[in-house]
Amino acid sequence: MLKNNIQKALLGGFIGTIVFTIMGQLIAPHIIGFPMNVGKMIAGMIHSPENVGIMIHFVMGTILFPISYLLIGYDRISGPGWLKGLIFLIPIYLVAMLVVVPMAGKGLFFHSLPAAMIALMGHLVYGAIMGSIIGTPNNSQNEVISQN
């Protein structure tokens, strides 16, 4: 069962990261006038080429956040999978806005309510996708396993 959850977590994280990235490129320009490029922002922080920043962005979204969710939020947050994932991403969004974005020289919450809202929307959509794909623990299966 753990292997299945890890596979679903990695898939959910990957699809969520793709959607998050596309939202930053296609939706953000209509609202804030320019694309939000997380990979470029990360690359600037570590003085690396943009493709390195994109790779780090995808590793975090595909592996780090989904595995963290399985370890921390999967069994502890109640509700349907999409809601559990969405709730799990709220603190990650806040860390991004209060620590990572300022470290990138963009200020708290990008110094822009519209940009901060686009980032929030992206994180919530990512969380909902990831949580939907991972699903929820099946209590009846857990009970059967613990009885054996």
UniProtKB/TrEMBL annotation:
The keyword Ubl conjugation does not apply. Keywords: Membrane, Transmembrane, Transmembrane helix. The keyword Membrane applies. Coiled coil: none annotated. The chain crosses the membrane at residues 9-32, 52-74, 86-104, 110-129. This is DUF1440 domain-containing protein. It comes from Photobacterium angustum. The lineage of its organism: Bacteria, Pseudomonadati, Pseudomonadota, Gammaproteobacteria, Vibrionales.
